[in-house]
Amino acid sequence: MGTTIMTLVVLFVFFAVLGLITYRASRSNKATPDDFFLANRGLGTVVLLMTTGASFFSTWTLLGAIGSYYREGVWFIAFAAWTVVHALFIWLFGARIWQLGRQFGFVTPGELVERYYGSPLLRTLFAVVGIVCLVPVMLIQVTGGAGALTSLTEGAVPYWVGVTLMGVFVGAMVAISGGRGAAWGDTFMGVFFGTVLLLITLVFVFGSGGFDSFRNISEVSPDVLVNQGNFWGIFDTALGLGLAFWVMPHMWQKFYSARSPLVLAKTSLLTPFWNSWLMALGALTIGILAHYPGLVPGLSADNSDQTIPLFFAAHAPLLGSIVIAAIIAAAISTINSQLLTSANILTTDLYKRFVNQGLTMRGEAYVGRIAVGGLTIMVVVLAFTPAAQGFLVPLSSLGFAIAIQMCPAAFGALMWRGATRLGAIASLIAGLSALTLVYLVDSPLPMGPAASGIITGSVVFVVVSLLDPRGPTPIQHEFHDSLIRKLYANQNSADKTHAEKS
Amino acid sequence: MRKTHATIIAVFFVAYAATFLPNFGIFNSLTWIGPLSLPMAWVIGLNALNTVLVIIVYRRYFRPYAERMAAEETALAQTETDTKEGIR
């Protein structure tokens, strides 16, 4: 009973602090879409780093990834590798997205692709796929957080209470404070759960032999210290979680939200340290060292997603409440951005674009708030379905797999002048069809749904674009010329100087 | 300079691709490199290399672009101010 009360007290304090931050953030809000959805394009380095990290790392990291490391061992270390790639993606794609967002005033990914390809249909497809891909990832935040709460309190706080509590709080928080509140909240929560992850990593290292901890594991579970093969299995997850970092709508919007390219540049510089060296390798250390005898009593493959709650339930139930708060912080800091972005897509790409083009800026922010409420209810209801309560990694991987099918079309708009409208539409349809087919029916090919989809989509994109007799439009030239001029000005002048000297 | 950029990006992705070698049984024995098993040490080593490449990209390309944009915005703001003062 003491544990339950302690957990509730800590959670109350946590929610109170978060509520205060949200309230403070909302006081600076203006009733414009830029302000409500993108924090007025004014995020600084620390806030952007934390909000991108916290939005991408979630219960998936503190629960699901640790469970995967426990079950699969070093095989899952690909997580640490693809999170460094995120930093390069900020340069390759984030800078371009920021540049075009600032130049044309885009608020959603759909606006950018519609402008580039001149296709309202493509914008609609991006909107629908964008929301659909976010649903499984939002779901695992709610189910993971509620599951951890139930686990630590040994059922005293039932699952439905956890789900409802998180749903109500997140919905209210996002509706009141918008993008600024989400970013400020993410900064607080990111620092909080990053610190907790670091401390737990250290506890596990020293609890299992310090410098020799991994050697000690070789005596009980040597299999987890070598890679189990299954390349296509991890390749699918790596593709999803690597590419989704820039193409998932809520991450895309983070790039629009940066105050300047220097903020993006610094975020890129710090990303490997936060995403890979802390988050991914911290999770690896905890997941593998959890095999140390007696460290996590009662742990098995079946409940390995609950490694941290089980550890604290056994050794330090009172401290466990702080960990539950960290897990819930990780969950809220992800779902808040995803809710906001989904609401933004519904409002801007669908309602305003196709139903009410005369919507005022104030009206847009108002409709956005209603959309946040509706989406929150949908997620809470879905959290009670059996499908939403499976392993966290496979469930979220589905969302990431769906998201990356937008990559070829988005890549064209940012990088490839030869991309055509027909190629982009065909690639998205082909990619999603292949993904669905492989997901539902056993494929004779070794690739999983994500890889099958994006390989098919990319091939279709290139082939259809090359066969399309229509060349690049003036707006396409404008996009690429402007990007090259801005991003590589020195290189162009260096090339020119070199040519003149020759 | 563009060639250097392309080379850095290529090296980065080759190093990233090499992190999957243990999946094919290469660098995947249970031998120890300090406190780490060989496949862990291999991936972490490549991670360190790619982190250095990210720092190089930041210094050579990302920061100069960002500073150019900041200079452009400052110049634009100055022009607007001058125009307003001229109108007065």
Number of helices of chain A: 21
Structural class of chain A: mainly alpha
> What percentage of amino acids of chain B are in beta strands?
under 5%
State Rg of chain B.
23 Å
- How many E-type strands of chain A? 0
Describe the protein in words.
The complex is a heterodimer of chains A (502) and B (88). Chain A is mainly alpha-helical and 502 residues long. Chain A has one domain: Sodium/glucose cotransporter (Up-down Bundle). Chain A has 21 helices and no strands. In chain A, helix 3 packs across helix 8. With 88 residues, chain B is mainly alpha-helical. Chain B has one domain. Chain B is 76% helix and 5% strand. The radius of gyration of chain B is 23 Å and the shape is rod-shaped. The termini of chain B are far apart. The chains are: A mainly alpha (502), B mainly alpha (88).
Give short descriptive properties of this protein.
heterodimer, A: 502 residues, mainly alpha, Sodium/glucose cotransporter, 21 helices, globular, B: 88 residues, two-stranded antiparallel ribbon, 2 strands, 76% helix
How would the blueprint of this fold be written?
The complex is a heterodimer of chains A (502) and B (88).
Chain A: H1 2-27, H2 33-38, H3 45-56, H4 59-72, H5 78-104, H6 109-117, H7 120-152, H8 159-207, H9 213-220, H10 231-247, H11 249-257, H12 261-289, H13 307-315, H14 317-355, H15 361-382, H16 392-403, H17 407-415, H18 421-440, H19 449-467, H20 474-487, H21 489-501
Helix pairs in contact in A: 1-8, 1-14, 3-8, 3-11, 3-12, 3-14, 4-7, 4-12, 4-14, 5-10, 5-11, 5-12, 5-20, 6-7, 7-8, 7-13, 7-14, 7-16, 8-12, 8-14, 8-15, 10-11, 10-16, 11-14, 13-14, 14-15, 16-19, 17-18, 18-19
Chain B: H1 2-18, E1 32-33, E2 36-37, H2 38-87
Antiparallel strand pairs in B: 1-2
Helix pairs in contact in B: 1-2
Quick description:
With 502 residues, chain A is mainly alpha-helical. In chain A, 79% of the residues lie in helices and 0% in strands.
